[in-house]
Automatic annotation (TrEMBL), chain A:
Keywords: ATP-binding, DNA replication, DNA-binding, Nucleotide-binding, Nucleus. It holds the Pfam family AAA_16. Component of ORC, a complex composed of at least 6 subunits: ORC1, ORC2, ORC3, ORC4, ORC5 and ORC6. ORC is regulated in a cell-cycle dependent manner. It is sequentially assembled at the exit from anaphase of mitosis and disassembled as cells enter S phase. Interacts with DBF4. Interacts with POLQ. GO terms for cellular component: cytoplasm; nuclear origin of replication recognition complex. Signal peptide: none annotated. SMART domains: AAA. CDD domains: AAA. Residues 48-208 form the AAA+ ATPase domain. This is Origin recognition complex subunit 4.
Length: 458, 504
């Protein structure tokens, strides 16, 4: 079926693009969405000044919500004409000086030319404030989006925050300050005069932790192909994005374009049927439940699905593309302990040292150790063993250093005082369970070592 | 010795050659050399005397066309936004004009005018009136403080002597609004010729990047020019220390005084020392939050100069807050009386911050607006009005504690992790737990609940996720299983959220 295989390739491309680049589709939380949209709309239309904080755990879609609201508003011509959007990120704009330069450029003030700002930091601040003070209800509204808001709180004196909030609470140019952060206690980071000027509107975004059915439904939705009508609706939704002219806010540049994809009706139907069958499958539900138990965020689910989608290839028929087995396999791969994998790659000598460390830790209740202690313990075993005899001290030291470099052993203190290598004290960053699992899983481990690992008595 | 003598001579010769060439033959010399020479001159003069050199440079128009024609050509496209003058401007010229105050800072105007007054509903009008930025003509409940500052300032202006005053109070109690209100009243009196004229200057500590910029700001408000702080300082020193006939009184308002204090306290000292000079006729009003700032932070000599004329703004009581809000509403019926009272009582119990009360009221109008726009409600009560329920919702939103909600919306393993931390704290009795102890608790709890135990690596990921939300306070995961974990929520919150009763 040459036709079908082409469609399968197209499906993979479509699903990948939708997972990765659909920056502005936000599901659920209608109230919060409406709240922010109304706020921005009032700022743009009536010239009201406002401030708001958007708070939610990592991966809960705060930025996506922001993007979705902006996409909605971009259809509104009044909004496009009457607002300037200034985007700041706490990770990029690490101090007020940088942030201020960026603001000056994005607002296209007089002292900025071609992305270069003239004058000192103090002059820039004074000029920006003078500009904002000169504004009134007749001037354009400015929407400040502060991503990673909590990092702005650590700036010197919180000058930028004070001034932004102060402008929003005085009769100057209409601005809206919108902070996005994942810290729940962000308000406590604000100085009291900054806190007083902040309007205390907080919008919390929490992914719903109780609704597993919705999660399963979302899984099916993210994998299925929309109908032609839905595709058209979606492409209409993102059409307004071309009005967004911002150099800092870049989500619109490489956005997912649904209008580029077209599927045969018959193919779409059979694919969606296949996916619907998967969703009902008990083993799929079980695998997803394990994922859901660990992390309920949509971002995590998307990365999970992306790995599924990446395995689609056109050589196999459609029914063999995403199967219940591949899903449970993938979910199981999330449960694997990486450290055990790492330990399985060690040489027998290194594993013997780890076992010696384990014995030491068990006997002395996780007391710190150095090379000498471990080597003497290992030597006791090596003397009576048939395979480990004749291992020299430098070789063992090398193995010990290797363990240290892999950070399976952590030095007790970070000080670089002149302690000889052999006498430096360490602690072990492994649990006993992990070591036991390794001993069981290790390929071709000498029986002596296995027996020694069971008990320290030789 | 010959070499040592030789080198300076050669450099002198070189520089003289360059100068000669510049002045004699204009055409041959290429532009980079010339701009370099010019730049060095301007930098030198800027270092020596800050503002005087801008004027001559600007007043030499014959030089500007010579200067790098390519640059000027490029800047024509950009300067279309500025409507000061049609001449092409390079950025550095623009900067000079900004510094000399020739370019007025401006914002882009909006294309469409904001909505007219007529189409607005009662709620919208109320919301506009409740905005913090709409300061009323006379502040309610601050009459006594107003009189206090008024008599002080009026006396100082009429006696034509200098003085200091220190105003303190927690944020949002009407300090700055009252002082600017007094100044406005005094300025009205000046226009009626009932009072000798005076200058009013205003600086805010938080609007400065460093304390010394205060000189620059003061000087800019006097003349409109921006100069370096050293220069501004010497000019201000000259102005305030030398007696001049017909000097008018200057009132200087210093907001956020505590930011101006650095270790040396030279700026605060100067600002408070000038009023003591007979020639200055400077009246300084300082505003800060803490009542005991002069004793706590300032040096003895500065405290002594600050004097004992002080005024403290008390936080608003619930009655005063209610009066403020009803004063803003100005007889509008958008609010129910008991709704305002609820806001006032709730806010007064926490901080007595007027901004807070006004913001909550504004949020309540938004909620009422949203509720009225819904079809099922609009038929029931046609009169849009903010009632108790709306205020309740606004209060819940704005005095929010979302920790319980956050715990409820954690994933199952995250909830187990939180329970494990709580269990470890109860077991050891110490607040600070280590990851290893928590992990053993996780194993126990997971076995008890029949859930699969996460591997240590995944547990570390959960830990850092909870740490980023600040439900926990934890170290960097580099410390692996030895990192210390603190619980940032109360244990009762966890139990309440997870509905774990006293079963274990």
């Amino acid at each position: 079926m040459p036709d079908d295989s082409e469609e399968i390739l197209k499906t993979r491309k479509f699903l990948k693009a939708r997972l990765l680049r659909d920056y502005s589709t936000f599901r659920g939380h209608e109230n919060e969405h409406d709240n922010i949209r109304q706020l921005l709309k009032r700022t743009a239309e009536m010239g009201e000044s406002n401030s708001m904080l958007l708070i939610g755990p990592r991966g809960s879609g705060k930025t996506t919500l922001m993007n979705a609201v902006l996409t909605d508003l971009m259809k509104n011509k009044d909004f496009v004409q009457n607002t300037l959007i200034v985007y700041l990120n706490g990770n990029l704009h690490t101090d007020d000086r940088l942030a201020l330069k960026s603001v000056t450029i994005q607002m296209q003030l007089e002292n900025a030319t071609d992305g270069k700002v003239f004058g000192s930091f103090a002059e820039n601040l004074a000029f920006l404030l003078a500009c904002l003070k000169a504004g009134n209800k007749r001037s354009k509204s400015v929407v400040f989006i502060l991503d990673e808001f909590d990092l702005f709180c650590s700036h010197h004196n919180q000058t930028l925050l004070y001034n932004l909030f102060d402008v929003s609470q005085s009769a100057q140019a209409p601005i809206c300050v919108l902070g996005i952060t994942c810290r729940l206690d962000v308000i406590e980071l604000l100085e009291k005069r900054v806190k007083s000027r902040f309007s205390h509107r907080q919008v919390f975004i929490f992914p719903n932790g109780e609704d597993f059915d919705a999660y399963i439904k979302l899984f099916g939705e993210l994998l299925s192909i929309p109908s032609e009508k839905q595709l058209k609706e979606q492409s209409e939704r993102v059409a307004g994005l071309k009005h967004l002219q911002s150099n800092e806010l870049t989500f619109h540049r490489n956005h997912f374009q649904p209008s580029k994809y077209k599927f045969h009706k018959k193919y779409t139907e059979s694919w969606n049927k296949h996916i619907a069958g998967l969703v009902k499958n008990a083993s799929v539900t079980k695998a997803l439940q394990a994922v859901f138990d660990f992390d309920i965020s949509q971002a995590f689910l998307k990365s999970f699905i992306y790995r599924l989608v990446a395995h689609i290839n056109n050589a196999a028929p459609m029914s063999a593309q995403i199967t219940a087995e591949s899903i449970s396999q993938l979910a199981a791969s999330y449960e694997i302990d990486d450290k055990v994998e790492l330990l399985c790659g060690l040489s027998v000598l290194e594993l013997c040292l780890v076992i010696a460390i384990k014995h030491h830790s068990e006997i002395y209740d996780r007391d710190p150790f150095n090379f000498e202690i471990i080597f003497s313990r290992f030597n006791k075993f090596a003397k009576v063993s048939s395979t480990m005899q004749g291992i020299e001290r430098p070789v063992a030291l090398k193995a010990f250093e290797h363990l240290r470099n892999m950070e399976l052993l952590l030095p007790l203190t970070a000080t670089t005082c002149k302690v000889q290598k052999e006498f430096e004290m360490h602690k072990m960053a492994l649990t006993y369970t992990q070591i036991n699992q390794t001993v069981q899983r290790y390929q071709a481990l000498p029986t002596e070592v296995q027996q020694w690992s069971q008990s320290s008595i030789i | 010795t010959r070499l040592a003598e030789g080198t300076p001579r050669r450099s002198i010769q070189l520089s003289s050659i360059v100068e000669k060439r510049v002045f004699n033959e204009d055409d041959i010399i290429n532009t980079p050399k010339r701009t370099k020479a010019r730049k060095s001159i301007s930098i030198k003069s800027a270092d020596h005397d800050g503002d005087d050199d801008y004027v001559p440079e600007l007043s030499t128009p014959k030089k500007t066309p010579q200067k790098t024609p390519s640059k000027g050509k490029r800047s024509t496209t950009k300067s279309s936004t500025s409507d000061v003058s049609g001449t092409p401007k390079t950025p550095s010229q623009k900067l000079k004009m900004i510094r000399s105050g020739e370019i007025k800072p401006s914002l882009e105007k909006r294309g469409i005018l904001a909505g007219s007054e007529k189409g607005k509903t009662d709620l919208q009008i109320a919301r506009e009136r409740l905005h913090v930025s709409v300061v009323p003509q006379s502040l309610p409940c601050r009459e006594k403080e107003f009189d206090n500052i008024y008599t002080f300032l009026e006396g100082k202006i009429q006696d034509q002597c200098g003085g200091c005053m220190y105003v303190s109070g927690v944020p949002g109690t009407g300090k700055t609004a009252t002082v600017t209100g007094v100044i406005r009243t005094l300025q009205e009196k000046v226009t009626d010729d009932e009072l000798p004229p005076f200058d009013f200057l205003e600086i805010n500590g938080m609007r400065l990047t460093e304390p010394r910029q205060a000189y620059v700001h003061i000087y800019r408000q006097l003349t409109g020019k921006t100069v370096s702080w050293e220069h501004a300082h010497s000019l201000l020193e000259k102005r305030f220390t030398t007696p001049a006939p017909r000097r008018v009184t200057t009132v200087l308002l210093v907001d956020e005084l505590d930011i101006l204090c650095n270790r040396r306290q030279d700026v605060v000292y100067n600002l408070l020392d000038w009023p003591t000079k007979a020639a200055a006729r400077l009246v300084v009003i300082t505003i800060a939050n803490t009542m005991d700032l002069p004793e706590r932070l300032l040096m003895g000599k500065v405290t002594s100069r600050l004097g004992l004329t002080r005024l403290t703004f008390q936080p608003y009581t619930h009655k005063q807050l209610q009066e403020i809000v009803t004063g803003r509403l100005n007889g509008s019926t958008a609010f129910k009386g008991d709704a305002v009272q609820l806001v006032a009582r709730k806010v007064a119990a926490v901080s007595g911050d007027a901004r807070r009360a006004l913001d909550i009221c504004r949020r309540a109008t938004e909620i009422a607006d949203a509720a009225a726009s819904k079809p099922e409600n609009s038929s029931k009560d046609s009169m849009q009005c903010v009632n108790m329920m709306h205020v309740q919702q606004a209060l819940a939103e704005m005095i929010a504690s979302a920790k319980v909600q956050a715990i409820k919306n954690c994933s199952r393993l995250e909830q187990i992790f939180l329970q494990a931390v709580a269990a470890e704290v109860t077991r050891t009795g110490v607040e600070e737990t280590s990851f290893m102890g928590v992990y053993t608790q996780i194993e126990t709890i997971a076995a008890f609940m029949g859930a699969s135990t996460p591997t240590p690596g995944r547990a570390l990921r959960i830990c850092s996720k909870l740490g980023s939300e600040r439900l926990l306070i934890c170290e960097h995961s580099r410390n692996d299983i030895f990192q210390k974990i603190l619980l940032n929520v109360s244990m009762d919150d966890i139990h309440y959220a997870l509905k774990v009763n006293n079963t274990n």
